[in-house]
């Protein structure tokens, strides 16, 4: 039973603490291992308090980075959880007195081991690889160096009721409960993601949305009893049709997903192990079906909002992992002197005057701008610059071209138009190289794919910055517009 598991692994002690989210993370893994139906975070909190009477919570850490901790609780010396945490090279909270002024680091990053036995985990990994999935949660330490695990969830705003009257049966207390539960839910998602426990996201969604197979659902709500007390499912359903709550949920999701992208892929050009890339792509592929399934008894209005944000998140993960893959392939080309010399030789044979003549009919770009870009490109190639130097050059091109539109309402339109023109010009150059049967065609094709993809990435971030939104929110808007045009 869960109470026995808590008693087997934790004990009370003075002057120590454990992050609340870490305990819940351990519990979810225990349930997954034992094939048990987990209760949600709120119910789990009640269970802990019933086992360890008089337990207190404190919010620790700097503003914006603080987390709730259970004060006076530690992992038992003989527990496999503690041994794993020490293996992960994290300080055990039991050894950290409160007098220390440094920010207390949450002790997670230990998930994926089956009760401390590596053999069980590797067997699970083999099964998953056999089925086409890559389980990397058993080697968190190995892969965590590629993440930016220091990021905390940004503060969420208050729900703006926009002067709208509350739905019948809804009180302000219900709104506050929803906000609090949603915040706890998002913090739990961030914690399992940092620990590369991707499959637990589905579990968290199911517990938050009170998932049950039966439509009636009342009998199965026992598992969600603590959440029921804080916010009955009937009220949750009513709030899922209320415009201010829908808008707030979308904004929170965009904020959460942007944070998760920056944790998983902090630098799109930095090499990432293929197993991690594959795990992220598999996760992205599963997102929509997991979410739709977890929300099967939730009003369509909320499902649509949630799925739109999740799809923007999934698409961003797919694009960034593709961009990363292209970057690593291009790195090899840019470091090869013989290939660079061949590319220069082939590029000097391209009839750029003819390219500009044909392209200007469509793009209407100034001759001197195109000529400068051509010269800069050749010079940067000649200098055998690194991928990072090329990225800096591309960033400079974007800044230069979009400078006249800074703080202008037409910035977004100008940025997207530049992206089309850039793509059109580069396709014309590739066409010329193809017709000339250039020896370095393959290298150019690869570089062109990378630079187009990186330009998209840069423009996406510039547009988001100009709008004062996250890139995820901007991509979500595109998805919404696409859905509306399809439905017309």
Automatic annotation (TrEMBL):
Q: Does the keyword Cell membrane apply?
A: no
Pfam family membership, one: BCD_RFX
PROSITE patterns annotated for this entry?
Answer: RFX_DBD
Q: Where in the cell is it found?
A: Nucleus
The keyword Transcription appears for this protein? yes
Q: Where is this protein primarily located?
A: nucleus
Matching InterPro entries = DNA-bd_RFX (IPR003150), RFX-like (IPR039779), RFX1-4/6/8-like_BCD (IPR057321), WH-like_DNA-bd_sf (IPR036388), WH_DNA-bd_sf (IPR036390)
Cite a single GO MF annotation: RNA polymerase II cis-regulatory region sequence-specific DNA binding
> What PANTHER family does the entry give?
MHC CLASS II REGULATORY FACTOR RFX1, RFX TRANSCRIPTION FACTOR FAMILY
Q: What is this protein called?
A: MHC class II regulatory factor RFX1-like
According to its UniProt entry, this protein's organism is Gouania willdenowi (Blunt-snouted clingfish)
